[in-house]
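Notes from the 1:1 (GR / supervisor)

We went over the backlog. Supervisor wanted to see one worked example end to end before approving the batch request, so GR pasted a single chain during the call. The sequence is below; no edits were made to it. Supervisor asked that the structure be written out right there so they could see what the output format looks like.
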Amino acid sequence: MFGLPERIRAYLFDLDGVLTQTATVHAAAWKEMFDTFLRRRSERDRGPCVPFSVGDDYPSYVDGKPRADGIRSFLAARHIELPEGGPEDPSSADTVYGLGKRKNELVTAMIRDDGVAAYPGSVRYLRALVAVGAARAVVSSSTNCAAILTAAGLDSLVVVRIDGIVAEREQLAGKPAPDTFLAGARALGVAPSRAAVFEDAIAGVEAGRAGGFGCVVGIDRAGHADALRAHGADVVVADLADLLDAGRGAGVRGDGVGGDVDSEHRQPSAEPGGQSRPGGGSDV
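Structure output shown during the call:
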């Protein structure tokens, strides 16, 4: 069904780079934030300044991860130690929280000034799911998820939203841990083995594989299909519309997809407006 194994009954989508064309916006904001920090640190210490690489550093250290985890990962790769700080830190502070706040300010301004576009193929796929009443959720590390969905006109096409705000409130570990995807499956009332994960990030496909999901679909928008497969994707496509075209008439199987179907584990259903009740696994 919908280009995936027949047993799949729920569809969990990452946001940036899968549904919306915001991955490049996030990458640009990360680069501006880190380059400013690295340049300031280089001038202070009279040392070399190696800029943040969108092609290498972004997918390796920050893409798909919660903001603070991405900062810690990149700084560790550069052998830079910073204090953790706290939520009250200003964006000018050289702390993990301070850098995170600055990055969020940058990406929010970029989205406000330039708007948000959804991938047409992703809209087609979501509408096909809506037409048959299929269970669907957005699972994103972004704390701006709700605003981006609304700006892109996608908020009415999803039933459940598990985002960075929910993850913090419910103390869910971020990708590559599977916790947020598992929360999405619980909120939809479907066992992981009967759900598909759609991801463009290495950390995301790793999360899908770690969670035991029935199919992990890698979306290759950056020419890293081999890496997506190596880290857990069963199927890799360039666009979600490819699945609609390939799957007409019958479901298709990607490499490594198989095994028995688990019975569903029903949890409290989602409330209207893309939000589920907190507690009992119904996170938003």
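Supervisor's comment: The two ends are 26 Å apart (CA to CA).
Batch request approved.
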